[in-house]
Amino acid sequence: MTRIVLITDTHLDPTGAEPEGYHQQPRYAARLPELLAAFDAWLQAQATSAGAGPVDLIAHLGDTPQAEGARSAVPLDGAGPVDLVVHLGDTPQAEGARSAVLRGGVGPVDLVVHLGDTPQAEGARSAVPLDGAGPVDPVVHLGDTPQAEGARSAVPLGGAGPVDLVVHLGDTPQAEGARSAVSPGGVGPVDLVVHLGDIVDRAAPEAVQAAARAFALSVPVRLVLGNHDMATPADSDERADALWLREAPALFDGDSVTTTLDFPDCVVHLVPTQWERGRPFYWGEVQVPHYLPEQVAALEAALAARPDVPHILCTHGEVLGVPPDQTGFDTLLHAPPDAYTETVLGWVGRYPHLRAVFSGHNHINTHHARDGAHVVTASAFVETPFEFKVVDVAPGRLSMVTIPLLPALDFRAAYDWDKIFVQGRLRDRSFTEGE
Length: 435
Description:
6-stranded mixed beta sheet; globular; 7 helices; 2 domains; alpha/beta; 17% strand; Purple Acid Phosphatase, chain A, domain 2
């Protein structure tokens, strides 16, 4: 199996300042060193992980009643104050769970967990009163989910004691301020991290050098240049790809930023989107996403090879807009020009082994199905809740999950609950095909 982790839109500023400009959720680019330290700790932890499935929160229930045999419809009475409210989304765990409150437009709360007097309760937001329901006992039902399989009651919790229950939050944003004593994870060793672009905010030599230092992680990192990564000074004669290859060669394979990586189980294509016609690898203000003829030729030649394994395309510009049924708006959000969409979907149609297209740019989690392929965009790594994606490829199987880094962080991050569509629905955050 090949396991690839995707992150995007980190907007590093070498001065440590918080860049101004486009973002969807509260942005913490100035805290990128902390985020990358937690992310690399997660990567290292996967090297010895048994791979039980993505776990967003590990809760130590203290001396409260055990979760064994707990039912999602158990009466809500008699345990004390509520420390954490979890919205499960459209998961099996939600069946029969009692809807308690509405939180800032997020929708009904399906599950309430009482953490007891444990370190994990620190910082957790209370959502009482619960519509007159009273205090809450642990109400937990893992069901027959992959996350339940392999859950252990003796995993170390950084000195907090044995773990009584592993709770999977249904790939939805966690309750603001909730934290865990361990990193989220449990997916198994990672082969490669692909950054989908906008690793820096402006492409000055010192920023490129800072990015090379910051992303020297425990797992190899490869970069797909984004528009901000091509934002070189307007009076510079040097193309951005030449700048990056000179100052940050470890982020690329060979002497081109457009490349193909061969794995036993799959082929991964890294193809940067172009933004200004007539000036390759440059971005000033205009955004006309397209590809150069030489990029198209190289990609199509690589797509024609090894048709017996899945191919994955990683680029920066989004291929499809965010649909109204996700945002609640009247029209598509961030819809690219038709010509760009037609170019990428043309590859999907002509090469049926091109199984997935991943991009960043819009800072929003989306997932579309087109001609049997998955067309995905990712939220920004430096925006709450600091998410990344894990893509697994094995013979006959392709899957993706989205994991928030928030539980592994030591600071409390703000969240805009009016824009929860940024995190996407369950189907925007994960998919599995095959056995």
